[in-house]
């Protein structure tokens, strides 16, 4: 298999076949992200993709799930994604889901008809990094789309019967805004009905605008206590039947999974027990987190 540049996938795709179709991230401008900072965006040729599939077929008896690498692989036009999906199905007829990271603007650039055609080719379960439903925070994070666009495009995915996982970050709105951030996320989640919710936690990485702003005092990070309150507010206000809470990212202080609303009470209990256990000093602190 040929892999170029840094390769990232959600922790939950550890069992998926990773097939590279793009290198880097076409957006590459988010205020907090260093994942592909030094990587020039490019696309992989269909010939190389086919070679990788032939190699993978020899290696794996059965592949039910394929994750298309890299940072925003859904940036490929429908006319490029369709032959890729067709080749995956040719070599792995048993495949159930072809998934990848998707940026809101990648959805916007496709027609409703194209989205439906991609769904028929088993493209589904897209990982969409929305990060926050908080209007000002979204603008600050420089995601390249606004709140209205996020809402409209996520709804278009639903109309095309493409499931998605809403990626978000606790603490995205900074200190003093945790409750607002939770309520704004809950509102967007409830309006767009994702299949899953995958939280990480905002963390300043050297080389980013966020890092500079934290060091100059322009952006103040939320304390751990506030992050826990934000989590509770989110659980109290999210209302989507069967929503999978996929919280086991290494960057999160309290990593766990849940199905909502079934596990709402249990999830809030887990957070409250942590609050009781860690003590005041820790709640007031801003812990150093794993980088992404
Ligand atoms: S967060 Fe995602 S969209 Fe933003 S720069 Fe990083 S990889 Fe690209």
Word description of this protein:
There is one protein chain. By secondary structure, the chain is an alpha/beta fold. The protein folds into two domains: 1-124, 2-Layer Sandwich (Transcription Regulator spoIIAA), CATH 3.30.750; 128-292, Transcription Regulator spoIIAA. It has helices at 46-59, 78-91, 104-108, 112-120, 135-140, 147-159, 178-192, 209-216, 224-237, 264-278, 280-284; strands at residues 17-20, 22-23, 42-43, 65-69, 97-102, 126-131, 164-170, 196-201, 243-246, 257-260. The protein has an eight-stranded mixed beta sheet. Strands 2-3 form a two-stranded antiparallel sheet. The longest helix is centred in the middle third of the chain and has 15 residues, at 178-192. The protein is globular and about 55 Å long. The model has no long low-confidence stretch (mean pLDDT 96). Bound molecules: iron/sulfur cluster. Iron/sulfur cluster binds at residues 25, 27-28, 30, 33, 35-36, 71-72, 103, 129.
Order of helices and strands: EEEHEHEHHEHHEHEHHEEHH
Number of strands: 10
* Uncertain segments: none
The oligomeric state is single chain
Q: Which sequence of strands runs across the widest sheet?
A: 1-4-5-6-7-8-9-10
Provide a short characterization of the protein structure:
With about 290 residues, the protein is an alpha/beta fold. The chain is about 40% helix and about 15% strand.
Please describe the topology of this protein:
Blueprint: E1 17-20, E2 22-23, E3 42-43, H1 46-59, E4 65-69, H2 78-91, E5 97-102, H3 104-108, H4 112-120, E6 126-131, H5 135-140, H6 147-159, E7 164-170, H7 178-192, E8 196-201, H8 209-216, H9 224-237, E9 243-246, E10 257-260, H10 264-278, H11 280-284
Parallel strand pairs: 1-4, 4-5, 5-6, 6-7, 7-8, 8-9
Antiparallel strand pairs: 2-3, 9-10
This protein binds iron/sulfur cluster.
């Amino acid at each position: 298999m040929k892999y170029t540049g840094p390769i990232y996938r959600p922790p939950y795709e550890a069992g998926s076949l990773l097939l590279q179709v793009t290198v880097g991230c076409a957006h590459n401008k988010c205020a907090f992200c260093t994942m592909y900072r030094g990587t020039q965006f490019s696309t992989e040729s269909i010939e190389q993709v086919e070679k990788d599939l032939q190699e993978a077929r020899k290696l794996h008896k059965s592949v039910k799930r394929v994750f298309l690498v890299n940072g925003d692989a859904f940036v490929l036009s429908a006319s490029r994604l369709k032959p890729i999906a067709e080749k995956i199905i040719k070599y792995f007829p048993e495949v159930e889901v072809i998934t990848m990271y998707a940026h809101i603007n990648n959805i916007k650039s496709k027609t409703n008809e194209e989205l439906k055609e991609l769904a028929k080719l088993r493209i589904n379960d897209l990982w969409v990094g929305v990060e926050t439903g908080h209007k000002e925070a979204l603008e600050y994070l420089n995601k390249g789309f606004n709140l209205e666009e996020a809402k409209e495009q996520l709804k278009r995915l639903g109309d095309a019967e493409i499931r998605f996982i809403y990626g978000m970050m606790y603490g995205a709105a900074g200190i003093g805004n945790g409750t607002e951030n939770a309520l704004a996320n809950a509102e967007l989640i409830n309006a767009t009905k994702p299949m899953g919710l995958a939280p990480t936690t905002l963390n300043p990485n050297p080389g980013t605008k966020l890092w500079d702003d934290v060091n100059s005092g322009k952006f103040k990070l939320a304390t751990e206590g506030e992050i826990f309150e934000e989590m509770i507010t989110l659980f109290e206000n999210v209302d989507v039947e069967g929503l999978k809470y996929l919280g086991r990212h290494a960057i999160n202080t309290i990593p766990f999974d849940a199905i909502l609303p079934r596990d709402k009470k249990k999830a809030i209990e887990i957070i409250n027990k942590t609050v009781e256990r860690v003590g005041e000093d820790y709640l007031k602190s801003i812990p150093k987190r794993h980088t992404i």
